[in-house]
Design a protein that fits this description.
There is one protein chain. The protein is α+β, with helices and mostly antiparallel strands and 257 residues long. The protein has 2 domains: 178 residues, Ribosomal protein L22/L17 (Ribosomal Protein L22, Chain A), CATH 3.90.470; 49 residues. It contains 5 helices and 8 strands; from the N terminus they run βααβββαββββαα. The protein has a 3-stranded antiparallel β-sheet with strand order 1-8-5. A 3-stranded antiparallel β-sheet has the order 2-4-3.
């Protein structure tokens, strides 16, 4: 993927995605909201949008849009779908930077942009010839076309790159704001794991169950031994009865008379 960054690309770690089925206008506003910000601050912005807590300011494409009191009366919106897409791309950009050997604590979003990738015209269904379009079928019911967008993100250390004075001032401002963040908001989501307390409680429950089972088994052992003794005695008595042979009538020779 060719990235539209005009600076030294060797000192920047890029990540992007094309053919995204989402509004390029919303994506461009999301990219604008994280540009020149550190990774923790960018994650806070994206997580706030995903949780519907903080809106994103729309400096463009805001015709007929409502104002938000969170933004001081400025126009904004909650583009949750686009925020999730940009967050995934940002995580891949950070991983690329780590693979290149960049310092993770000093990374800043240097490049963030979104544009239209391709436009697909809606064609009518196959049938009669559509007048004036040279295609099969009646004219399409929807007049809008399908627009696919692309996103480009670049992460780097601002000390290694030549930036404009305005960009440097914005980076300093956002770095000060990033120090006030909660540490949980500045991390990428990991695999869900149970808490240590929950694990300990589960272990204790399992141990108590095992102890109860062992006690029941130990209590049943003498009963089983007595029962086995009774069965052995019965078997022994039956064997004795089987081995005893009946006494035959002995002829003493008195049957002559």
């Amino acid at each position: 993927m060719n990235f539209s960054y005009n600076g030294d690309k060797t000192k920047v770690a890029f990540a992007g995605q094309a053919d995204i089925n989402a509004s390029y206008k919303d994506l461009s506003m999301v990219c604008e909201s994280i540009r020149y910000k550190s990774i923790p601050y960018a994650l806070k912005v994206l997580n706030g949008v995903i949780k519907d807590n903080t809106p994103i300011k729309y400096s463009r494409y805001n015709k007929g849009m409502g104002a938000r009191h969170e933004l001081g009366g400025k126009k904004g919106r909650y583009p949750v779908k686009c925020a999730k897409i940009v967050k995934d791309i940002l995580s891949s950009a950070v991983s690329n930077a780590i693979n290149k050997g960049f310092d993770e604590t000093k990374l800043v979003v240097i490049h963030a942009s979104s544009n239209k990738n391709q436009i697909i015209m809606r064609t009518p269904p196959k049938g009669n010839i559509s007048w004036g379009r040279g295609m099969y079928g009646y004219s399409a019911t929807r007049r809008s076309d399908l627009e696919f967008s692309k996103v480009e993100l670049g992460v780097a250390n601002p000390e290694d790159i030549e930036l404009s004075p305005k960009a440097k001032d914005l980076i300093k401002l956002f770095s000060k704001q990033a120090k006030r963040l909660v540490p949980e908001e500045s991390k990428f989501p990991t695999k869900k794991k149970k808490d240590n307390k929950a694990k300990e409680s589960v272990k204790k429950e399992n141990e108590t169950k095992e102890e109860a089972i062992t006690k029941e088994k130990e209590a049943e052992k003498p009963k089983e031994a007595e029962f086995n003794k009774e069965i052995d005695n019965l078997k022994h008595s039956q064997n004795i009865k089987d081995n005893v042979k009946p006494i035959k009538n002995v002829n003493l020779g008195n049957d002559r008379y």
